[in-house]
Design goal:
Elements lengths: L26 H5 L12 E4 L6 E4 L17 H6 L1
Antiparallel strand pairs: 1-2
Length: 81
């Protein structure tokens, strides 16, 4: 006796959808400013530079709290050094 299995898409699985299963984000969603992940959108970080912890503007978002595409957070230090 030969049994043939019929492959059907799984329903109700615990696996996350694959990238191809989701539609791409709209242009408006891509243009919307994202929160800075380094400071969690606060615009401030704790710096231990100099031995004493102090709160300083976030160098990754320059204190705005929003992600800046293509921004180099270490550029100011290289220029000052």
């Amino acid at each position: 006796m030969v049994v043939k299995a019929i492959m059907e898409p799984a329903r109700g699985t615990l696996t996350a959808p694959m990238a191809a299963d989701q539609s791409p984000p709209s242009q408006a969603a891509r243009d919307e400013p994202r929160p800075c992940t380094a400071c969690r959108g606060t615009g401030r970080v704790i710096s231990g530079l100099g031995g004493t912890p102090s709160e300083v503007p976030c160098p990754w978002c320059e204190g705005t709290g929003r992600f800046i595409p293509g921004h180099d957070a270490q550029a100011a230090r290289r220029e000052a050094g």
